[in-house]
């Protein structure tokens, strides 16, 4: 093989290599969940690039990916309550970058947008909220603290970033304060129990009085009715009679005949004997 042929082969190989590099630098792919920011010689395009394949100027233009999926970051804050108690809150922030804000986030803010924008605003918001409540209310009304913190933080950040949710994972108080709150809650429970017992006793007493008054009125009504109609006694005796003739009666024979005329047991025996004959 001559020297000229070798040089030709080397030149072809170099040309192919250059073409491959140029071709690779002329295309880009934006992955799912991302948006691309086009930068040409340091100038940022105002329009973001969507997901998928695209073309660009080789070596002069680059496509910078920006994640727009929901992300989660942990955050801690040292706060003070309205009664000047130290409160340590541990939070979990769920956020995302709206695709309309991709270009401005890349162009105007350096580094992680969470550290640059979200974390300071959330810490400031929760400090404002806890400063308006006592330490006891912060613990008891955790959901209200969360909702108000989320509202204030989103107002401070604006529409450039979206906080999807805010989770208060833990609220830490001093051991002395936790013991005091626990003791107070126990005392309140005991007081509520005592009030319940007192109310129940009062209700039972009122029920007994009402029942006694009803019984007294019933006795008065029955007494008045008996005085007006003595025959009611005979009616009650007949209604309560079990169908058996009494073997013993009182001295008043007339009162016994009201129930059943009495017969001499011996006369029954004599009658049965005569019948058998």
Describe this structure in words.
The chain is α+β, with helices and mostly antiparallel strands. Among the domains are: 3-67, no CATH class; 71-173, Band 7 domain (Tetrahydropterin Synthase, Chain A, 2-Layer Sandwich), CATH 3.30.479.30. Helix content is 55%, strand content 20%. It has helices at 3-25, 102-108, 113-130, 135-140, 142-157, 175-228, 231-240, 253-257, 265-276, and strands at residues 27-30, 34-40, 43-44, 52-55, 61-67, 71-80, 86-96, 162-172. The strands form three sheets. A three-stranded antiparallel beta sheet has the order 3-2-5. The N and C termini lie far apart (166 Å).
Write the layout of secondary structure elements.
Elements: H1 3-25, E1 27-30, E2 34-40, E3 43-44, E4 52-55, E5 61-67, E6 71-80, E7 86-96, H2 102-108, H3 113-130, H4 135-140, H5 142-157, E8 162-172, H6 175-228, H7 231-240, H8 253-257, H9 265-276
Helix pairs in contact: 3-5
């Amino acid at each position: 093989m001559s020297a000229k042929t070798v040089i030709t082969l080397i030149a072809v190989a170099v040309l192919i290599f250059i073409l491959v590099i140029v071709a690779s630098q002329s295309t880009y792919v934006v992955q799912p969940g991302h948006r691309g920011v086009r930068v040409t010689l340091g100038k940022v395009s105002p329009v973001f690039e969507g997901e998928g394949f695209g073309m660009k100027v080789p070596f002069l233009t680059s496509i910078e990916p920006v994640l727009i999926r929901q992300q989660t970051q942990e955050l801690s804050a040292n706060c003070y309550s309205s009664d000047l108690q130290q409160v340590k809150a541990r939070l979990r922030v769920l956020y995302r970058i709206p695709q309309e804000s991709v270009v401005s986030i890349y162009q105007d803010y350096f580094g992680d947008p969470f550290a640059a924008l979200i974390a300071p605003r959330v810490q400031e918001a929760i400090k404002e909220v806890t400063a308006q409540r006592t330490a006891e209310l912060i613990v008891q009304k955790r959901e209200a603290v969360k909702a108000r913190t989320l509202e204030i933080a989103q107002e401070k950040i604006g529409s450039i970033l979206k906080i999807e949710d805010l989770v208060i994972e833990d609220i830490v108080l001093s051991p002395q304060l936790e013991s005091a709150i626990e003791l107070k809650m126990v005392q309140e429970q005991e007081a509520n129990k005592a009030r319940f017992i007192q109310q129940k006793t009062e209700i039972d007493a009122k029920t007994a009085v009402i029942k006694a008054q009803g019984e007294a009125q019933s006795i008065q009504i029955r007494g008045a009715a008996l005085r007006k109609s003595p025959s009611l006694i005979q009616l009650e005796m007949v209604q309560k009679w079990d169908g058996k003739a009494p073997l013993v009666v009182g001295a008043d024979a007339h009162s016994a005949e009201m129930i059943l005329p009495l017969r001499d047991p011996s006369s029954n025996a004599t009658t049965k004997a005569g019948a058998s004959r």
